[in-house]
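ok so I'm stuck.
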Amino acid sequence: MNTKLFSKKSFALLFAGIFTAASVHTFVNTSVQAQNNPKPPEFTKFQDASQLKLPGNGKPFIPNGLGSSEKANGERGIPDGVDDRIPMTSNQYPWSTIGKVQGTTADAKSYHCTGTLIYDNLVLTNSHCVLDPETGVLSKKIEFMPNFINGRVSNPRDIASVQRVIYGTDFKNGFQDNSKDWAILVLDKPLGRKYGYLGWKSLPTSTLTRNPKKFFFVGYSKDFPKSNPGMTAGFEAGCSITSEEANLLLHDCDTAGGSSGGAIIATIDDQYYIVAINNMEFKNRRTGQDIINSAVKIDFLDRLFSQN
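replied:
not stuck anymore, here's the structure
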């Protein structure tokens, strides 16, 4: 795939109506029930978080006794070379750090996204996974289900309620704010001590594009697996970040609704780091064909955690 997929002019046409940008966020039903009835999360927009103190230094963490494996297990979902995902059924690190973000909107609709532990009680996902990007209305309930496989977590007591949300945008500027489509969820349980957490590195786009087919992606897509969609994450090894346009990274990892917030992961010095967060897919409005997907750069994490 070419590393320069769109000129700035052609990319701008995506937002002018020739193509439709489809948010990878989906409303679904789930069999997992809350363990309690928590209060709605507190929400803090990034611009108002100057006094907020969050722990974390961008370094990965593997708990003692938790195994590590590069393999995510599972068999190829569609063995024709088009869909490269397999079911993510491993409970070992780093895949243990990834989970399902389950939300409830103000009008009681259920939806899900994908999130990744980046500290004991902190999960990284998208802004549009905590609020409605069309109305700006905040979700009234959000939970994180770590290492969610086949519709369940290994221990139901590990389902965490989100107490606080720090988010990058409320989308008042529409598509202009997609580069700020991130959120950090503060959990009521230190799940990272048990499941581990990933580090992050904000790398130059040139470095990312010079390493094709070197990235991993995991997301709870609504179309995967076919037998029980959204109940096990899809895993892909060997996808690429192809270019940068309008302050978003373009990538070819296989995604669909529900994989919003999923981490694009690189191995650096034999450790696992988040280098971007999946947030949108672009489709041809006439044919419905996927064109390319986009991801949020994570340099905001350096700014946010530098306040410590």
